[in-house]
Amino acid sequence: MTPRRLRLTTTTHECDVAGLTYVYAVRSRRAGGVSIGVNLSPNNACNWRCAYCQVAGLVRGRSPSIDLDRLEAELEEVLARASRGELVEGGGPIRDIAFSGNGEPTTSPDFAQAVERVGRVVGRMSPAIPLILITNGSRLDQAPVRAGVRRLGELGGRVWFKVDRVTAAGILEVNGARVLPAAHLARLRVAASLCPTWVQSCFFARRGEAPPPPEVDAWVAALGALAREGVPVRGVLLYTLARTSAQPGGDELGALDGAWLGALAERVRGVGIADVQVSLAR
Question: Which distant-in-sequence residues (6+ apart) come within 8 Å of 20 by Cβ?
């Protein structure tokens, strides 16, 4: 169980650290450096099917049970090698440890226990590294998931909650899920009450065209309503594509430019959310 030394860029991610099942490394645009990933979906299963997803062989389903002892041992080994400068070519600090991977992490029946195990390792070896849950938020109405998110908050972690669109048609088109927008925003409120939470949103071009203005207007309006309601959303992480989608029709999708994203960020600030961070394709 020895991870090989990685050569990472923001456009090509080596997620197959040799011999490891649950832990990998990426150079993340949003984290601004190297991020250690915790993949609770080694079966490539997700309950959503986002149009921009880069997971090849993605299937509908849930994440499996996790070998928690193996997860803990893999994370210990990766952090030890990172501390000695043996993990990533060119070195650089570890910016965060993120529950992300090849599917929705909160669908694993062991999600809450995985948060506890990861928190134990980080507290012992690298207490300054923040923990992040990157989630589509679909399971926040489940008590075990809420318990895991609450524990994440107690450990000083944060949630990046996916809100790409806020109409039923837009969510179906972009996220491949039949979701009631009001229910999705209700789950966002739950997340924000349990742990510091940022909205994470992906916008992209399709066949060279930017997203339809009514969809963008609805998204901005929903964020403004949350701000007026006093929901403690800490900010918005706004990004576009950096790599080609591995999903059907993915070759029709492309990155948006900085001017488009910058203008959208200003609109969000204008409705009451001051912290808007924009990540470009490069």
Answer: 1, 3, 74, 77, 78
CATH of the domain at 154: 3.20.20.70
d(CA 13, CA 10): 7
The structural domain count of the chain equals 1
Judge whether 108 lies within some domain: yes
CB-count exposure of residue 130 (10 Å: 0-12, 13-18, 19+):
middle
Rg (the chain; Cα; Å): 18
Per DSSP bridges, beta strands 205-206 and 253-254 are antiparallel
Range 182-205 burial, b when 16+ CB lie within 10 A, else e: eebbebbbbbbebbbbbbbbbbbb
The Cα 22–Cα 16 span in angstroms is 9
Asked whether residue 140 is assigned to any structural domain, the reply reads yes
- Per residue in 144-185, pLDDT (tens digit) is 999 999 999 999 999 999 999 999 999 999 999 999 999 999
**Taking the alpha carbons of 36, 40, 44, 47 in that order, is the dihedral positive or negative?**
negative
- Residue 224 domain flag: no
* Residue at 197 is within a domain: yes
Distance CA 213, CA 197 (A): 26
Q: Which domain holds residue 133?
A: 23-204
CA distance 216 to 37: 30
- Residue (of 173, 233, 158) closest to 203 by Cα position: 173
Summarize pLDDT for 196-255 with one digit per residue, the tens.
999 999 999 999 999 999 999 999 999 999 999 999 999 999 999 988 898 999 899 999
How many Å apart are CA 235 and CA 196, to the nearest integer?
10
Residue with tokens 């060279």: 208
